[in-house]
Amino acid sequence: MAPHWHSTTILAVQHRGNVALGGDGQVTLGQYVVKSDAHKIRRLHNGRVLTGFAGASADAFALLERFEAKLKDFQGNVPRAATELAKDWRMDRSLRRLEAMLIAADREHLLMVSGTGDVIQPTDGIAGVGSGSPYAIAAARALLKHADLSAVEIVRSALEIAADLCIYTNRNIDVEEL
Description:
Glutamine Phosphoribosylpyrophosphate, subunit 1, domain 1
């Protein structure tokens, strides 16, 4: 059996009118780290939309390109672009084979788009995808509840906590904010 790609922890937090999205830089193949400084966070639509992706790299980039096209088609409307992307993902035979997930956010919306065609808006303003996301989400929830931190500080701290727990997450962290 071929080694399975594991890569990344992506976390987004909406807090106090801001949204921060961050990710680590690790990509592993089986038991080996093949890259430690990957950049999995992107600004789209003239910097007004943040995206982060997890999954097979080529699939994630294909998904990101399609999302960017949908953003353009729908004048930066993140919910509409995500919904249309998810519909295409479910209906198109080649897209259904993509193994990736996407988080997209603007100042008003935070959404996860899954490979099964789901568009999920978290109720607590915290979203995560990737191997270490359960750790990062748990840490972000605790920090949001018990610390007086900004969205960027919560994302960075939660990703650092995830890096301490998840072997597929490192401390080479990028964080962007709107």
